[in-house]
Every structure is written in structure tokens, then in C-alpha cells.
């Protein structure tokens, strides 16, 4: 599929983040940037949080965007972490709000453990130095990474992960493990559809996707900034074989955090969006 330019009409992007999780900008600013990038349909999918969805919906309406309320869940398939996108979810879902509160507390405990490990490496960080980068209650490693950059302990967010925060690095702390099948059920219970995010990044194979399809998976995020044409082709074949809907997402976080992921860089067809929406419970 050819890449759209920023001026392209009818661009559909179902994956972006705000300061409610690890994005650079509040939901209103993300909406403005989505509109400037030529989007017609925009989804906000903060990590483990639906807190910014009301603000996102209001801002989308102001910019003439169709808004798709979403969430991105960190889930586990066997022993490894993958990401699951929920689209068309109910922002008032009690199940998602309860899960968000549970995860927020677990993330706060994890953050304290990461700060302790960094202190053991001679890097003093206070919780407030990390929390200032979060616009909500969802704290994650990207917030620590930005604090490390601000403190001169790393040149970039990527370097902070490579040196300290990535899996196997000295300040890494594992997170709460939500089974992928349970996450799919939770998204469906909230009225949404479940899509596996950027499978090429996680190197998911057909057998793993087939297992998720059996558990009720609805789509695969194929048109992603980190997927080259051969990767897209591989997953398009998987989607066709497994009866899953191909989706598109820039995975926009903001230029400081992910400078290579921009609005207008990927899209999907209106027919694919309709097919995904038709799978809502």
C-alpha cells in the first residue's frame, strides 16, 4: 500500500498516545496534530488507560475528526509480552476503569523498584522527577527514560532503554502479567474490538496469531511505521488466512519520544475500518 502524504485525505490512524500514558502531548494537542497530519479518523490508545478518552472525543469533534476511543494493553502470550489494541471501547466501562486503577497501583510500585535499582547504579532519581512527565496516573519506563535524559544520564530515550531500562538491563523490573486471552475478553466486554499491535516488532508468528484468533482476536495492525513492505506482506497473508482485519497505526507518541512515527505516514481503507467495526460485540 503506498504511503500517504501529510496532505492526503481520508487517512485512518488507529494508534496514538497522549500524556495519559507515555505520549508527549495532552489529548487535545494530539488531536490537533492528527488533523494537521491529514487524518479523517483518529484513535487514541493510551497504555492501560482510558482516562483521556473524553478529552480526545471533544478535541476530535472540534477538528472535524471521527474519533475511535481505544486503549493499548500490555499482555503476555506464553512467556513474552505483546501489545493488544482495543478499539471502539466504552469510555465508561467499569471493567476497564477497574483494571486501570489496578494497573496504576502496580505501576507505581514498579516505578519505586526501578528508582531503587537506578540509585544502586549511582543515579539518584526522585519519584516527582518521573511523575512530571506523566499527565495521568499511568507511569511507565518511558517516563523514567525522559527523566534520565533530563538529568544528563542518557542522550536519548532510546539510549536510556538500551543502557538501563530495557529487558535484561540493570534497572529493568518486570510488569504485571495479563494473559492475552483474558485481555481480549475484557476488551470485548467493554464493547470493543481486539487487535494485535505491531506484530513485526514483537516477531509474532502465524501459530501465535492463530492461537489469538481462536481466543477472539479481531485484527492485526499491519500498516505500522516499523513494518517494511515484506513484513506487511507476511502479515497480510496471515490476516487473510485467519480471517482477521488489517489495521493501520502510526503509534504516534510525539517527536521527542518517537521522531520516526508521524501522523499521515500510514493508513488503511474505509472498507477495512468498516470490517473492524462490524466485529464489535
TrEMBL record:
Pfam families the UniProt entry points to: PHP (PF02811)
Top-rank lineage group of the source organism: Bacteria
SMART domains named among the record's database cross-references: POLIIIAc
Residues covered by the Polymerase/histidinol phosphatase N-terminal domain: 12-77
PANTHER family documented for this protein: EXONUCLEASE, POLYMERASE_HISTIDINOL PHOSPHATASE N-TERMINAL DOMAIN-CONTAINING PROTEIN
InterPro entries from the UniProt entry: PHP_dom, PHP_domain, Pol/His_phosphatase_N, Pol/histidinol_Pase-like
Protein name: PHP-like protein
Amino acid at each position: 500500500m503506498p504511503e500517504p502524504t501529510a496532505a492526503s485525505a481520508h487517512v485512518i490512524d488507529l494508534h496514538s498516545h497522549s500524556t495519559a500514558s507515555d505520549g508527549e502531548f495532552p489529548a487535545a494537542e494530539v488531536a490537533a496534530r492528527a488533523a494537521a497530519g491529514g487524518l479523517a479518523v483518529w484513535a487514541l490508545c493510551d497504555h492501560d488507560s482510558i482516562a483521556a478518552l473524553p478529552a480526545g472525543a471533544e478535541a476530535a469533534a472540534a477538528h472535524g475528526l471521527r474519533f475511535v476511543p481505544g486503549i493499548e494493553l500490555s499482555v503476555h502470550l506464553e512467556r513474552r509480552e505483546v501489545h493488544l489494541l482495543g478499539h471502539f471501547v466504552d469510555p465508561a466501562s467499569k471493567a476497564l476503569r477497574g483494571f486501570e486503577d489496578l494497573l496504576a497501583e502496580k505501576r507505581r510500585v514498579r516505578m519505586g523498584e526501578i528508582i531503587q535499582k537506578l540509585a544502586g547504579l549511582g543515579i539518584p532519581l526522585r519519584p516527582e522527577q518521573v511523575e512530571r512527565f506523566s499527565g495521568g496516573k499511568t507511569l511507565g519506563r518511558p517516563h523514567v527514560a525522559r527523566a534520565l535524559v533530563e538529568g544528563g544520564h542518557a542522550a536519548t530515550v532510546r539510549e536510556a532503554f538500551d543502557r538501563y531500562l530495557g529487558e535484561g538491563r540493570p534497572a529493568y523490573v518486570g510488569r504485571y502479567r495479563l494473559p492475552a486471552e483474558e485481555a481480549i475478553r475484557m476488551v470485548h466486554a467493554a464493547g470493543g474490538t481486539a487487535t494485535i499491535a505491531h506484530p513485526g516488532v514483537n516477531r509474532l508468528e502465524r501459530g501465535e496469531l492463530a492461537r489469538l484468533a481462536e481466543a477472539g482476536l479481531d485484527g492485526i495492525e499491519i500498516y505500522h511505521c516499523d513494518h517494511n513492505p515484506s513484513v506487511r506482506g507476511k502479515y497480510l497473508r496471515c490476516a487473510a488466512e485467519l480471517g482477521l482485519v488489517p489495521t493501520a497505526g502510526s503509534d504516534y507518541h510525539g517527536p521527542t519520544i518517537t521522531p520516526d512515527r508521524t501522523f499521515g505516514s500510514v493508513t488503511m481503507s474505509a472498507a477495512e475500518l468498516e470490517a473492524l467495526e462490524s466485529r464489535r460485540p
